[in-house]
Amino acid sequence: MTAIRFAALLLLVLLPGRAVAQPLAIEGVEIVEFGLFATKLEQKVRDADAPVGHLNMVSGHTLLERGDEFCAKLNLEFGVKYRVLGKAVGKPVTLDMVTVFPPSGMTNAAGKRFAKSGFKQAVIIGDTAARTYSFEEPWEMVPGVWTFEFHYLGRKLGEKQFKILPSCPIS
Questions:
Q1: Does residue 159 contact residue 50 with C-beta atoms inside 8 Å?
Q2: What does the DSSP 8-state code read for residue 137?
Q3: pLDDT interval class at 171 (50, 70, 90)
Q4: Rounded to 5, what percent of the chain is helix, strand, coil?
Q5: 3-class DSSP state for residue 143?
Q6: Which residues contact 145 (CB under 8 A, 6 or more apart)?
Q7: CA 115 – CA 156 distance, rounded (Å)
Q8: pLDDT confidence of residue 168
Q9: Following DSSP, what letter does each residue of 10-69 receive, concatenated?
Q10: Band of the pLDDT at 1, cuts 50, 70, 90?
Q11: 19 or 76, which is more confident
Q12: What's the Cα-to-Cα distance from 134 to each of 16, 26, 41, 89, rounded to whole Å?
């Protein structure tokens, strides 16, 4: 993704509600890759609704290992590359991204419990985009099934599940 396109998408994420757009016909989401990723942190954006209090804006999503079952450890970054399917190829659209935590939920350092968390992500229909989750704090490493959901205008377009194991033997 070029720096200009990344900057334009970042502005769409950071300035929600500034532009009025007509709803687009979105057919769904295609998962292109999934597993462990390496990324470059571009910026931390304060978000009081996020379990850690911010969202990480990252770039350069490089798939390190394909899979959907991983051992919990700090700095583990798992996620997907995906493509939004629709007839308006090349048009920007904002999706609601929801991360559903395992049934036990996630309790942050302040004692607030989360069953799920969400954010908006601006993408271009037909282009490949990415979303990941990185364990920055020990209390985030909740074992169980994590679900990444993709929504547009209240309709779920798709999902991808990951199984996070509590710990694994050192090999």
A1: no
A2: S
A3: low
A4: 10, 55, 35
A5: coil
A6: 102, 161, 162, 163, 164
A7: 17
A8: 79
A9: HHHHHSTTSS------EEEEEEEEEEEEEEEEEEEEE-TTSTTSEEEEEEEEEEEEE-SE
A10: very low
A11: 76
A12: 24, 28, 11, 30
- From CA 5, how far away is CA 124, in angstroms rounded? 10
Distance between CA atoms of residues 134 and 72, nearest Å: 10
Q: What distance in Å separates the CA atoms of residue 46 and residue 43, rounded to the nearest whole number?
A: 10
The structure tokens listed for 130 are 């990415």
Please determine, for residue 12, whether its predicted confidence score (pLDDT) is greater than 80.
no
Sign of torsion, CA 41 151 118 114?
Answer: negative
Q: How far apart are CA 84 and CA 17, in angstroms?
A: 20
Residue in the block written with tokens 């950071």: 14
CB count, 10 Å around CB of 77?
Answer: 19
Per-residue pLDDT band for 4 (boundaries 50, 70, 90) equals: very low
Residue written as tokens 């757009």? 21
Query: Rounded CA gap, 87 and 90, in Å?
Result: 9
Task: State the pTM of this model.
Answer: 0.84
- What band does 103 get if pLDDT is binned at 50, 70 and 90? very high
